[in-house]
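Technical appendix A lists one of the benchmark inputs used to test multi-chain prediction within the project. The record comprises two sequence entries:
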Amino acid sequence: MAPAKKISISEDELVSKLKSQDTTAVRTLYEMYSGALMGIISRIIPQTELAEDLLQETFVKIWHSAASYDSSKGRLFTWMMNIARNLSIDKVRSRDFRNAVKNQDIENNVDFIDSQKEITFNADLLGIKEMVNSLKPEYRTVLDMVYFKGYTHVEAAEELNLPLGTVKTRIRMAVGELRKYFN
Amino acid sequence: MEEARVYIESGILELFVLGQLNAQEQAEVESMAAKYPEVKQELEAIEIAMEQYALLHAVSPSEKLGEKIMSHISLDPATRITLPVSPLASEINNQQKIRTLRFALAACIALLAISVAALFSTRNALRTAKDQIAELSVNNQKYTSTVNYMRSENEDLRKIADMKSDPDWKAVKLAGTAMDPKASMMVYWHVSGKHVMMDNSKTVLPANDNIHQYQLWALVNGKPVDLGVFDVRKDHSKILVNMKDIAGAQTFAVTLEKKGGSPTPTLDKMIVAGNVSI
């Protein structure tokens, strides 16, 4: 999968279409962002079927809550990503999910260890490899825990046995390196 | 400027984009972004970087999912609502409105029922009041007439009582003739004033019918003089009835004549007669 599909529509135009309940806006959003959102959801919920249900839930919520999106407060993707992540975290913390995956805990832990070893879903992609090389592992671990794994930065600090200030600094440094990389 | 730089370097903007802040902290970042363009710019740069990072980690969902989601959304009733309002919110709103309107309708019906009941009870009360007023006014008339009757009766009785102290008043008792021996009557005659009155309270005559009337006569030197007609009813309205004046009568008599009286008495219809005692 290509990192980003080039679709010639401005974000403003897309937002106004979405707000006027034009279904083509959802189709465009799906084409542009379903992979990125699925990436976030599937790192919190590895079961593909459940993750896809949540992706559908995410798009339905985007569709229903379009009116509440305020472009002056942030980019559309940030808003959509937060919807996807919050739905996923709610799911993970729900009782039925815990019961369903009780036996898979070990597998999840393995997966988490894998990610710390930089073996991720799309590790075979050239882009990731390049980027991974440019991002210090200790920065990346903290960022990925918060961004992809559904940890709060406080939880990440506890998990990694680091002071909260250090976690905050590492997050900032990681984002700074990403910015440098993408520019 | 300095404040903005310090704020940017605190790392709070990264936490904001990563969804790590509580509502109060989020509002603070939003207001700082609105205040300082460089904060806003910095935020956007972080957002773009994270967006790129997410895109780099994209995982393709299965091919059919896109169509499944699109058909789900197309079937959604929200598609038909074109207003930029959350369809769910407006639906809930409508339901609430409908519920409110139902309550209002029920309240209106209840009020109407109460009003109709009140109107009926008022109408009944009014009718009762009207009946009572009518009854009272009838009673009032009855009392008035009774009072009037008693007043005139009282007057008449006083007159009769006064007669005793005036020697000119003669009480003439008329006794029944062969026609009706039980009949009797009393006539008062003022000799000098010539007044003649009959006393209903002492009249014992059978009631006359509609085509006949009693006629009072005075015999003056053997000649009958008409003193007027009168009726005898079960309930007389006055005690004393004034008749025509007469001077020098020796005898009073009553005959039953045709209605309105006759110029001369029908002698075989004479029912009572009495002489003036000297």
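The first strand of chain B starts at residue 169 and ends at 176. The first helix of chain B runs from residue 2 to 9. Comparable benchmark entries are summarised in Table A2.
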